[in-house]
Amino acid sequence: MKKTKRFSKTWKKSKSPRKQHKYRYNAPLHIRNDFVSVTLSKELKKKYSKRNCSAKKGDSIKVLRGSFKGKTGKINKIDLKRSKIYIDGIELSKKDGTKAFPPLEPSNLMLTELNLNDKKRAKLLERK
Hints:
By secondary structure, this protein is an alpha+beta fold. The chain has helices at 17-26, 29-35, 42-48, 119-126; strands at 37-40, 52-54, 60-63, 72-79, 84-87, 92-93, 99-100, 109-113.
């Protein structure tokens, strides 16, 4: 019995949802980081001449879609396994009265302010 590879480094693209799902599910963390890339605001696009950027804890974000549309806040946590972003200031109240951060999809968010404490990230943005 031949053992199949979990993640293919040479995989380019496929229209098959089954293969797309397998690629995303088995992707290693350094590739999953690209899945949490968020679009930049108009000012940041002009400043860095980039369309999007990987989200990082401490970035300011605005919600564009969903029940929290228009709300802003700072990134509290990023879950690479599920490709979800949690934001301070956006909370749900549970039935028992406790507060919880709802998981948000990166495609429904916009970066309004970047956290440039990381020198590597600042260099990466200035590269173009």
